[in-house]
Design goal:
Two copies of one chain form a homodimer. The first copy, chain A, has a two-stranded antiparallel sheet. Helices cover 58% and strands 6% of the residues of chain A. Chain A has a domain of 124 residues: Arc Repressor Mutant, subunit A (Orthogonal Bundle). Chain A is globular. In chain A, helix 4 crosses helix 7. The N and C termini of chain A lie far apart (63 Å). Chain A has 180 residues and is mainly alpha-helical. Chains A and B meet through helix 2, helix 4, helix 7, helix 8 and helix 9 of A and helix 2, helix 4, helix 7, helix 8 and helix 9 of B. The first copy, chain A, binds a DNA duplex (30 and 30 nucleotides) through helix 6.
DNA sequence: GAGATTATGTCAGCCATATTGACATATTTT
DNA sequence: AAAATATGTCAATATGGCTGACATAATCTC
């Protein structure tokens, strides 16, 4: 029985070098794997209570956040960002529109497009949801060195898939995205 | 119609100070809100293809990861970490046990406890799942300054709820947890 | 030792959010 | 006119959360 049990600790004996094949045991950066899990777990839990008051879930938060931050966004842009299907987005977006948090306007150039905007009501909710998350981040950065904010932002950006990294940087830092 | 639309850009005009009440518009650290979303989105997408080959989802990954990393963990420990109910854990854990990835052993001190261990098969899968995430993290850190790893780890730890921060640090850095 | 508490498991049902596939409509492009 | 695009919608399904109720075995307390 005991012999079918893996003993990870024995595999990380100090200084041990793998004799054959790649070392699949724990290594540099593995602390970040767990820290990311715990940090994100608590980070996304902040707005849950507020959302519950509106009968919304985390999916509504994500949609409202991006529409509020990037007014005039197309539905297709949102699908690219969230990496979900239009059917999944559909229900959530419909609820936000029905509730008066988001409005749609046909595109001026291309009237097939439904450009998305947060209403004042929507912007207020987005701000309420953003507030505890901002507070948590500012508190976390406050205890660190002055350049930590930049280091952390650079790290997180470097964690994004290389193919989309520039798009994400443009979005986050508000360089207006040129749309072809 | 246009007057019910919020215009966030006007609220972040450079140097503007709020005249009344707290400033609920965007401020320091808000770039981190979005960067965390994008970084985590891509970070957790890495193992998805591997998991699909086994008919598993992200819930299985989380359970297997923590059991592999902390052998002899109790079911209650896992519930604390994942912050889910025992019913939710139950289904996923049962599948991992039935599939031979995890085994249970009664606790030596308290035979009510079911201590969890990854089998060799489970440890191998955990390593395969960890590999792309480790690679992504190492690549992200490689482009940064030498002290970035520490800064990022400190930041992520500081993002954890204060009440659990010490427990998380102990877990992540393998200081054996004293159990009362 | 009897009774309370604890650790775990399980049944049943519900909800949120994701999926795929098919099809409809309006609009723009070719 | 035909093809391609942007969006919306219907239907069915899966995952992974939840609550509530109840069962078992083991330990702790008096």
């Amino acid at each position: 029985m005991a012999d079918i049990i893996s003993h990870p600790r024995s595999r990380i004996a100090a200084g041990r070098e793998p004799a054959d094949g790649p070392d699949l045991s724990h290594g540099a950066g593995d602390d970040i794997i767990e820290l990311l899990f715990f940090a994100y777990r608590d980070f996304i839990s902040d707005p849950d209570q507020i959302l519950a008051d509106f009968g919304f879930g985390r999916a509504h938060h994500r949609v409202l956040h991006f529409v509020d931050r990037h007014p005039g966004m197309r539905v297709a842009d949102l699908l690219d960002i969230l990496k979900i299907t239009k059917q999944s987005l559909g229900r959530v977006l419909k609820q936000l529109i029905d509730g008066g948090f988001i409005v749609q306007k046909p595109g001026a150039m291309d009237r097939r497009e439904r450009l998305l905007f947060a209403t004042c009501k929507g912007a207020e909710l987005a701000a309420r949801l953003r507030e505890p998350q901002s507070r948590r981040i500012r508190a976390a950065l406050a205890g660190l060195s002055p350049e930590a904010h930049r280091q952390v932002a650079d790290f997180l950006l470097a964690m994004v898939n290389e193919s989309e990294r520039q798009d994400v940087a443009d979005r986050v830092y508000e360089n207006e995205r040129p749309r072809p």
